[in-house]
Design brief:
The complex is a heterodimer of chains A (about 290) and B (about 280). Chain A is α/β, with parallel strands linked by helices. Chain A is built from nine helices and 13 strands. Classes of the chains: A alpha/beta (about 290), B mainly alpha (about 280).
C-alpha cells in the first residue's frame, strides 16, 4: 500500500532522511519509534505530501503530492500536537467531513464513544478544549471516515484509560483493511498496538522487525492489586486508571485495556516495593492470563 | 470550487475569532467615531462639507493604516499558523493546494475589507439618519479604491508569508516593504531625486508603480481634478492618462499587482514544504 523509495530530505545542509526504503501493506500496524530528531515526523510529512523530497513516496501507486485528493481522502491523521484552531468544534467537524465526503454524524458518534460530547461543545472554539478533548476529537475525525491508512503521532498520549480502551477497540475494527503507522518516541506506549516495529535514528531505519500479534486490541483485563500498606502517591497514580480501593486503600480493583498492559506494568514497577500481590485476568475472552506476584 | 469556498469560509471563521481582527475592526470603527465626535461632518474644506468631507478624511487616514494593517495581520496569521502546526493538520485533509491557497486569499480579503467598508457604510447611515445628504458617487468610488488597495497588499502579504519560513521574518519583511513604499510616497524625496539628475520619467514611473501613491493621487483627484497639489508630475499623469484613464488605472493596477504577487506566492507555495 505504501512505498518509500530512497527518500532523502534535506533542510539546508542538514540531511534529515538518508535514503529511506520501506514498504507497508494493508493490515500492518507499524510502530515508528525513535528519539527526537530521528526523522519520524519528517517521514510522516513526506507520506502526507506536505514535504517535498528526493526519491518516491507512493500510496496505492499514487504520489501524495500530485494526487492529493485521491491519496489524502484515504488517510486519517492524528498529529502529536493539536493545532491551535479557533474555529468551533461543530465547524471543524463539518469542514473535515465536507472535505472527506463523510457523514459528520459518524465523527460525532465516534467522539461520543471516546467520551467527548461533540454536540455539547459544538460552539466551543477547538483551541479552548482540554488536551484530552482535543485528542479525542482529532481521533474521531480520523476514525469517523472511510480511512484506509491511519497515521498517528502519539495518538493515545492524552487519553484517559477508558478512552484508550475505546480507542483500541476502534482500531481493532479497522485493523484488517487498513494500514496503521503509529509514531512514538517510546516503544512501550505503542508496543501492544502493533505487529511491526520500525526504529529510526539519525534519519535512517536501524530496526525493522515483526512483533508477535497476540494481544487482542479490543481485549480488557481485570486487575486486583494488594499493597503492603496504603500509600498516597500510589493511590493518586492508580486512581487515574479508574481503580477503586477497598480495605483501607490496601486493595485496588479495576480494568485496563489489553494493549495497555505493558504501560500499566510500567506504572506498577515504580511501586514494586509496595506490592504484596497482583492478579490480572482477561475478562472479555474469558481467557485466563494471570500473573501472580506474592 | 466547493473546496475553495469551504477554505475561504474556514479562514473567515478563524479570522473573525482572532484578536487581531478585533483590534483591526476597532481601529476603523473608532476612526469614524472620532471623525464624527470632532465634528468633521460639520466643518468645511476646499468646498467639501458633511459626509463628503468626512469620507475624504477617512480615506486619507485609511491610506496610511490599511496597507500596514493588512500586511502585518496577513503575514503574522499565515506564517504564524504554519509555525503553530495549523497547516500540518489542515493540509493533511484532502483539499487541493489551489483551493486551500486561493480560499485563504478570498476569505482573508473579505475579512480585511469588511471593517473598512462597514465603517464607511456606518458613517453614511449615521449621516442619513441625521438628515445629511449621502455622497453615493464618492462612496462607490472610494469603495472601489479601497478594495483595490486591500487586494494589492493582501497579495503582497501572501507572497511574503509563503517566502518567509517564520512569523518574525515575515513580519520584518512586511514592515520593510511598507516603509519602502512609504518612503517613495514622499514627493520631496522624488523632487530630490530629480535634482540629483534622475530623469523625470523615472520619478513619475516610481510614483505610478507605488500602489500607495497611485491610491493617494486617485483620491486627490476628486477634490483637486487638476492635481495642482502634485505639481509638475500632474502634467505627465493627466497628459498620459486623462482623468478617467487615471481612475481606471488606479483601480486596475493595484488589483493586477496584488494578483501577480499572490500568484507568485501560490507558485512558490505549491513547490515548497507546506508546514
Amino acid at each position: 500500500m505504501i512505498q518509500f523509495e530512497n527518500i532523502v530530505k534535506n533542510f539546508r545542509r542538514h540531511q534529515v532522511l538518508k535514503g529511506i526504503n520501506l514498504s507497508i501493506e494493508r493490515g500492518q500496524r507499524v510502530a515508528l519509534v525513535g528519539s527526537n530528531g530521528a526523522g519520524k515526523t519528517t517521514l510522516i510529512r513526506c507520506l502526507l505530501g506536505e514535504y517535498t523530497c528526493q526519491g518516491r513516496v507512493l500510496v496505492d501507486a499514487k504520489d501524495p503530492r500530485v494526487c492529493r485528493r485521491e491519496v489524502l481522502s484515504k488517510v486519517g491523521f492524528v498529529p502529536q500536537l493539536p493545532p491551535p484552531l479557533r474555529m468551533p468544534v461543530g465547524q471543524l467537524i463539518r469542514f473535515a467531513a465536507s472535505l472527506c465526503d463523510s457523514d459528520p454524524q459518524r465523527m460525532v458518534s465516534v467522539a461520543e464513544e471516546l467520551g467527548f460530547d461533540a454536540q455539547h461543545f459544538h460552539k466551543q472554539p477547538f483551541v479552548k478544549l482540554s488536551g484530552g478533548q482535543k485528542q479525542k476529537l482529532l481521533i474521531a475525525i480520523a476514525l469517523g471516515r472511510q480511512s484506509e491508512l491511519l497515521v498517528m503521532d502519539e495518538p493515545a498520549a492524552n487519553l484517559d484509560p477508558q478512552a484508550r480502551h475505546i480507542f483500541f477497540k476502534l482500531l481493532a475494527a479497522k485493523k484488517d483493511h487498513a494500514a496503521m503507522l503509529i509514531s512514538s518516541h517510546r516503544l512501550d506506549e505503542v508496543a501492544a498496538l502493533v505487529n511491526r516495529v520500525i526504529e529510526m535514528d539519525q534519519g535512517e531505519i536501524v530496526l525493522d522487525d515483526k512483533v508477535a500479534d497476540l494481544v487482542e486490541l479490543s481485549s480488557r483485563l481485570y486487575c486486583r492489586i494488594r499493597l503492603i500498606q496504603a500509600e498516597e502517591a500510589f493511590a493518586k497514580a492508580i486512581a487515574e486508571w479508574g481503580f477503586s480501593a477497598s480495605e483501607n486503600g490496601q486493595v485496588w480493583d479495576g480494568y485496563i485495556a489489553g494493549p495497555d498492559r505493558l504501560r500499566f506494568l510500567g506504572l506498577l514497577s515504580r511501586y514494586a516495593a509496595l506490592l504484596s500481590g497482583m492478579e490480572i485476568s482477561e475478562v472479555e475472552q474469558q481467557r485466563e492470563a494471570s500473573i501472580n506476584v506474592v | 470550487m466547493r473546496y475553495l469556498w469551504l477554505a475561504a469560509y474556514t479562514d473567515i471563521i478563524e479570522s473573525l475569532r482572532a484578536r487581531w481582527f478585533m483590534v483591526y475592526a476597532m481601529v476603523f470603527g473608532g476612526l469614524v467615531v472620532i471623525l464624527f465626535a470632532f465634528g468633521l461632518a460639520e466643518s468645511r474644506i476646499m468646498g467639501f462639507t458633511g459626509l463628503s468631507r468626512l469620507l475624504i478624511t477617512y480615506i486619507q487616514l485609511s491610506m496610511a493604516i490599511l496597507p500596514i494593517f493588512v500586511l502585518i495581520t496577513t503575514v503574522r496569521s499565515v506564517a504564524g499558523d504554519r509555525e503553530a502546526g495549523v497547516f500540518e493538520y489542515l493540509l493533511s485533509l484532502p483539499i487541493t493546494l489551489g483551493a486551500w491557497f486561493w480560499g485563504r486569499v478570498f476569505g482573508r480579503f473579505f475579512v480585511v475589507f469588511l471593517p473598512v467598508f462597514a465603517a464607511m457604510l456606518g458613517a453614511t447611515a449615521w449621516g442619513l439618519l441625521k438628515g445629511v445628504s449621502a455622497p453615493w458617487h464618492l462612496l462607490l468610488y472610494y469603495t472601489g479604491l479601497l478594495m483595490a488597495l486591500a487586494w494589492c497588499f493582501l497579495g503582497i502579504g501572501m507572497l511574503i508569508s509563503t517566502l518567509a519560513r517564520s512569523a518574525d521574518v515575515a513580519q520584518g519583511a512586511a514592515f520593510v516593504v511598507w516603509l519602502t513604499l512609504l518612503l517613495f510616497l514622499d514627493l520631496i524625496l522624488l523632487g530630490v531625486l530629480i535634482q540629483e539628475q534622475l530623469p523625470p520619467e523615472t520619478a513619475v514611473g516610481i510614483a505610478l508603480a507605488n500602489p500607495m501613491q497611485v491610491f493617494r493621487t486617485a483620491t486627490m483627484m476628486l477634490f483637486d481634478p487638476q492635481l495642482v497639489l502634485l505639481g509638475p508630475t500632474a502634467y505627465v499623469i493627466l497628459d498620459s492618462f486623462g482623468q478617467a484613464g487615471y481612475i481606471a488605472y488606479a483601480m486596475l493596477y493595484p488589483i493586477v499587482l496584488g494578483t501577480v504577487c499572490a500568484g507568485l506566492g501560490y507558485q512558490y507555495f505549491k513547490r515548497s514544504d507546506l508546514p
